[in-house]
Amino acid sequence: MARTGRPKAELILSDKERAALEGWVRRRSTPQAWALRCRIILACAEGASNKEVAARLGSTPHAVGRWRARFVEHRIAGLGDMPRPGGPRSVTDEQVAALVTRTLQSTPKNATHWSTRSMAKELGLSQSTVSRVWRAFGLQPHRSERFKLSTDPYFVDKVHDVVGLYLDPPERALVFCVDEKSQIQALDRSQPVLPMMPGVPQRMTHDYVRAGTTTLFAALEVATGKVIGSLHRRHRTEEFKKFLLKLDKEVPAGLAVHLVLDNYATHKTPAVKTWLLAHPRFHLHFTPTGSSWLNLVERWFAELTNKQIRRGVHKTVQALEQDIRTWIAAWNTDPKPYIWTKTADEILERLASYLNRIPDSED
């Protein structure tokens, strides 16, 4: 006779319980742990075995059996955390709710954000209690992040255009991400740099002596990650045209050239437009205004800044330019392309979801 395993507790949902569970599953603000428990109960109510439910929801048969038994005994209340041994709670649910509400919807009179001490004083709680509640709900009043939304009226079209080049480049063509890194300063520290020692990081003075600036024009080849660079002391139309001529010389004649670049005025002058008419294999694709994150060369600029410029010491502009050329040459010996993965529709869907969270955003 085949084994049937342990007998499972029969689970039957009332209409009210089913509606509540399905509502929690659909709600975006429901904690993931609670949503999983609701899905387990809904699946068990369909008559599936613990093993089937576990395989479907990525859980374990033991966990499914535990939540099934607790729901049968305590109904929806059984899906919460059961009381643990120890002293009674000193903070009520109402106090926790008040703390979370106050954190999200107000600021102190004498500061821009709450601290654990100021919130504890405001509500008459201990600092450790405020800290525990904030950690439990993922609240970090001391932190803030910056963002910028593009107001370009052709934002959607430009996103589709640029991302389309990344994900499905044209045949017999090279795609380059182009931009200028202007005002790169040659900085000499006011005192000698102290080298790193065991237990002591490298140290340098906070003040410096300026020796001048330079501008790097760079084109990142999307397919290979190689970079074509050109250094100039200024970044006018003349310098940009010289850089275009360099690209024209270095790219094989039989290939079209697609350039992804921003809306800087230098890229759109009559002289540049005239040059483009004389070189029909060049095609310019502009990113939306305020959307430098779409240009992959910006990521490469960050690499250059972190590994060469930020901690560099240069007594002259010529020394700075030589180090930049050397770094580009070293990069091109083992280039690493940046792989774009998001489609335009995924980006726009994510942006729409973000806008829905901003109360005064407009469609």
Automatic annotation (TrEMBL):
The keyword Hydrolase applies. It holds the Pfam family HTH_32. GO terms for molecular function: endonuclease activity; nucleic acid binding. Residues 175-320 form the Tc1-like transposase DDE domain. SUPFAM superfamilies: Homeodomain-like, Ribonuclease H-like. Keywords: Endonuclease, Hydrolase, Nuclease. The keyword Nuclease applies. InterPro entries: Homeodomain-like_sf, MscS-like_channel, RNaseH-like_sf, RNaseH_sf, Tc1-like_DDE_dom, Transpos_IS630-like. NCBIfam families: transpos_IS630. This is Endonuclease DDE. It comes from Streptomyces viridochromogenes.
